[in-house]
Amino acid sequence: MKTTISKVSNYLNEEVTIGAWLANKRSSGKIAFLQLRDGTGFIQGVVVKSDVPEEVFQLAKNVTQETSLYVTGKVVEDTRSPFGYELQVTNVEVIHESVDYPITPKEHGTEFLMDHRHLWLRSKKQHAVMKIRNEIIRATYDFFNKEDFVKIDPPILTGSSAEGTTELFHTKYFEEEAYLSQSGQLYMEAAAMAFGKVFSFGPTFRAEKSKTRRHLIEFWMIEPEMAFTNHEESLKVQEEYVSYVVQSVLENCQLELGTLERDIEKLKNVKAPFPRISYDEAIELLKEKGFTDIEWGEDFGAPHETAIAESFDKPVFITNYPAAIKAFYMKPDPNRSEVVLCADLIAPEGYGEIIGGSQRIDDLELMEQRYEEHNLTGDAYKWYLELRKYGSVPHSGFGLGLERTVAWISGVEHVRETIPFPRLLNRLYP
Ligand code: 4AD
Ligand code: MG
């Protein structure tokens, strides 16, 4: 029976054939252990010299790393392997021989691995991270569908900037100037006025000259937007969503979390509600923690976020930042106009900001005032203003950065390992 590694448990004590690549191998005079992978999983194939024709044993003994094979064998339980099964091999057929595979079981430097990303993706660790990424995406669709959100796809090519003009990728749109989307938010606001509760999931681009473990040039964002929803109600959705995602990974990715040696005790605790502190309180906390220079009005950097997160064992919301350091569309606090109704969600363990969100300005006059202050002129923003003209309602939304979330939940150090083909400062290859 032809099957995949993920399905071998359906064929206990039966003979199956799988298409696979040789990930690794150990052999002695009498026995060969083939570490096989087929994309759906990893399994050990055991080839015993006395049980197979001599040519099959010789082939198994000499097969090279990443050679593609059809392997036939009996599925048996193996309590020592985390996977639980192994194959007692009866036949091996080579599909294509791989010669001098560059990524050997020995240690390689990061740049070498990044140059071979197209092959590095085959490794067990990278496989585990991508499976967790996949589970987060699955849980995201599950959560928002269950909550009656409509998936809406904003454009990638845009005429306007959502988050500020300095970090835009410019391109030509025939005769016009265009940009790659930094965020679908403005379009999602239009969509919320048409569908009530919406979410997007797509690539976004930032021409940021940042070279840190948290920054990608191209990253994927999940952006929900909700009509008739205030800031407080939006925070509830955020904490429910993040809890749902973490608990889904814990439930469905046990093997992968094990491969990554993730400390899952730290994740089990991630359940709503999450703690909240105001920007003002965060400034006080930072001063107590030795950041004596920080002053009200300054934005937080990675060391600040890490220090704040250390005081909590769950993700923490920092709310009500000064208006001056946040985007033009955020609604001022009605009791205190120098701060806005917004929050950043900071992940534990130094992974930094994973969500940025806010209530949006719904008043036409105030938005017109912001346009003047931020010099937002021309047709590109005309439509956005019109959303405040025809039945404007209180509305809020947020953006969750997928790669930072994957990094945190997987426990990998750097976001470059959380997206199949990372776009980084000075890296467009492969
Ligand atoms: O805080 P940001 O810039 O917010 C927005 O773009 C809003 N328009 C979202 C919204 O309200 N709809 O980005 C949101 C999240 C951040 O919290 C972070 O997780 C991620 O996107 N992010 C990045 N991830 C990787 N590399 C980068 N360069 C990132 N910049 C932001
Ligand atoms: Mg932000």
Automatic annotation (TrEMBL):
- Every copy of the Aminoacyl-transfer RNA synthetases class-II family profile domain together lies at 130-430
Q: Give, as one word, the top-level EC class.
A: ligase
According to its UniProt entry, the protein's GO biological process terms are: asparaginyl-tRNA aminoacylation
Q: Does the keyword Methyltransferase apply?
A: no
Q: Which GO terms describe its cellular component?
A: cytoplasm
- Which Enzyme Commission numbers does its entry carry? 6.1.1.22
What's the catalysed reaction? tRNA(Asn) + L-asparagine + ATP = L-asparaginyl-tRNA(Asn) + AMP + diphosphate + H(+)
Query: Which key words tag this protein in UniProt?
Result: Aminoacyl-tRNA synthetase, ATP-binding, Cytoplasm, Ligase, Nucleotide-binding, Protein biosynthesis
- Protein family per UniProt: Belongs to the class-II aminoacyl-tRNA synthetase family.
Quaternary structure, from the entry: Homodimer.
HAMAP family assigned = Asn_tRNA_synth
Spell out the protein name for this chain: Asparagine--tRNA ligase
Recorded source organism is Radiobacillus deserti
Gene assigned in the entry: asnS
